[in-house]
Amino acid sequence: MTMPMTLALTRKAPRVSQALGITVLVALIILPFLALLPADHPLAISVWMLTLAGKILCYAVVAVALDLVWGYAGMLSLGHGLFFALGGYAMGMYLMRQAAGEGLPAFMSFLSWSELPWFWWGTQHFAWAFAWVVLLPGLLALIFGYFAFRSKIKGVYFSIMTQALTFAGMLLFFRNETGFGGNNGFTGFTTLLGFPIAATTTRIALFLMTVLLLVLALWLGFALARSKFGRILTAIRDSEDRLMFCGYDPKGFRLLVWTLSAVLCALAGALYVPQVGIINPSEMSPTNSIEAAIWVALGGRGTLIGPIFGAILVNGAKSLFTVILPEYWQLFLGLIFIGVTLFLPRGVIGLFRKGDK
Predict the structure, then answer these.
(1) How far is 32 from 83, CA to CA, in rounded Å?
(2) Transmembrane segments in this chain: where (predicted)?
(3) Which range is most confident: 19-23, 211-215, 244-248, 335-339?
């Protein structure tokens, strides 16, 4: 009697999480259209609330991307904020050119620049800017990962190096002479593909694009996790020496998932910027990358679905606490991490998978 009952619970647990995921997805698709309702309608939501939800979903994509490298390949990155910000800056360059028209972006005029830097050429075209969104973070991750994995850097040393990488990027972008707006970054966006960026319909379209990116990230993550590639990644995480004894070279597998994760973060950053309306070097702060690790740990590392709930819960609580008790937010975040470590070793998603042994 015990074995059939255990098998039934094991089958039931994934069904519960799948049903929960489908329910959340349907709610996310319906949510933006509530912004079109009259303000006095009981179900109506404000454009501000829609923007906040879109911002949190961008963070959820980052959480899924980080879970691919940490939850499956065992590489704790503390530098994913850099890739997120680079994608945001690439999109911000296009938006700044759209706002400036035939002239220079506002911050360049303020600094008395007479012409665009060479790396701004072509950024008035959306296709070129989108290529920057994908290629710049992807190439940076590829080059960094190639040398790091070739040198067999892993564990805490890998985490420290990724944190140093994002900190160096932040210091570079803070400088006015680099041509990225310095401390203020990019803001004052007006149009996106010819549509007013502040219009409710544009906000709805951006939100739905963010939902689509999240779904694609999940689909890609599950496809990889359930493939031979995913099994090799977990073998790298659990017993790299045994995997190498079987004839596999882990460097290539690590490099591929690391680069893919960076590109997903960059795409999330590109959708984040037009919704929030600003991008500056503070997005590269190592603190942001550490927070992303907390989202993954809270939701459930190595589950892909769990980190989404972690990102939503932490950022939703952050939005609430920074209004009610802003001085205690960091303390609250620390307590969350301690509580999850002590009482929820499998994260929040583990509550829905009690029967999954």
Answers:
(1) 27
(2) 20-37, 44-66, 72-91, 127-149, 156-174, 204-225, 252-273, 293-316, 328-352
(3) 211-215
